[in-house]
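Q: Can I see a sequence and its folded structure?
A: Here is a first one.
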Amino acid sequence: VEENGYTMNDKRDQRTSGTYFAFVACVYAFLGIITLVTVLNIVNSISMSVSARIKQYGAMRAVGMNGHQITRMIAAEAFVYAICGCAAGCGIGLPLSRWLYGKLITAHFWYAAWSLPVGPLAVILGLVLAATAAAAYAPAKRIRELSVADTVNEL
C-alpha cells in the first residue's frame, strides 16, 4: 500500500516464521531425547530380563536347546516389548501430539496445520527396532558363550 510517497509492507508473517521454526526445532529435539531414553530403556530391560533368568537359559541349554533357539527366544521377547511399546506410544502419542499442536501452535500461528509426522515416526520406529535387535544380540551372545556345565553347577 502506498500512501503519501511511503510504502507500507506487512511483515508480520516473516517475524513469526522464525519463532515457529525455533519452536518446531525444540519439539523435535525433545522427541529425539525421548527416543534416546526409549532406546536405553529397551537395552536395559532386555539385559536385565536375561540376567534374571540366566539359570533358566542354562538349564534349557543343558536339556538340548541350542544357542540359535535361545537367541530366537530372547529376540522374540525383545520384539514383543518393542512392538507393544510402539503401539501404545503411537496410540497415545499421536492424538496427544495433535491436541498439543492445536493448543500451542495452531492457536498462535494460524497458517500452521498439523499433519501426521510420517518421516519422524518412521525414524523413531526404525531406531526402536534397531535398538531391539541390538539389545537381543548382546545377552544372547553372552548366553551362547556361557558354559553349560558352569550354569548347571550354579543350580
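Q: Show me another, different protein.
A: A second, unrelated one:
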Amino acid sequence: MFVLYFLYQWLIFMPLFIIVTILAAITTMVGCRFGDSDFWGYYPGVVWARVTAAIAMCPCKVEGRENLDPKQSYVFVANHQGAADILLLFGYLGQPFRWMLRKGIKKIPFMGKACDKSGQIWVDESGAKGILHTVRQALNTLKNGKSVVIFPEGTRSSDGHLHRFKKGAFTIAAMLRLPIVPVTIEGPYKVLPKGSVIIHPNKMRLTIHKPIPAVTKEEGNEAGIDRLLHESQKVIAL
C-alpha cells in the first residue's frame, strides 16, 4: 500500500497539486488586481485547500462553526502540527481572514506573490523594528474589520504535541479589545510531519471553540493577556 501511494504522490498528486496551486495563485493575483481583494484574497485559497486535501486523500471534518459571528473580527489561534494545517484552516474555517506568514514563503513561486497581493501579513523577526512593523500590519488588518490567524507556538511542532505559546497574538487581541477564538487542529502531524516530504493519507479534524471574551479596560492589558493565553492553551489542548 505504501509503495502504491508513494507512486500516486509523485506521479499524480504532485502534478495536480502544482497545477491547482498555480491556478489559485494566478486567480488570486488577477482578482486582487482588478476586483475585490477581500473576496479574491480568500476564496481561491478555500478552493485550493479543499481540492488539495481531496487529492491527497485526507478527509477533513470541522466542528464549531456555529460559534462564530460572521460580522465579528477575531484573532484565531491554533496549534501548529504541520504543513497540512493550512488546508484545514483555509479550506474549512468558514470565516475570511488574513494569515501571519513567515517571509520565507515569499520565495515560493506563484504562492509568495499571491500572498503578497492578497494582503497577508508578513512576520519580520529581523529585529525590534521588524516586529513592530508586523504588529502594526496586524492591527491595521483587524481595525479594518478583518480577522487574522496566528500560530502562537511560532513554529510547527516537531513531535505532534502542543508547545508553549508566545504572547504576540494575545497582545494584539488585548490592544484592540477583540475576542480570541481557539482552534484545535488534529491529524496534520500524521499527514506531513515537520521535515518529511512523504504525505501519509489520514483524517484531519478542525475544532472551532467558543470565543474567549475580549480584555476589558477594568481587567487591564497585562492580566488580560495572561488570561487569553492560558485559557487558549488549555482549550486547544483538550
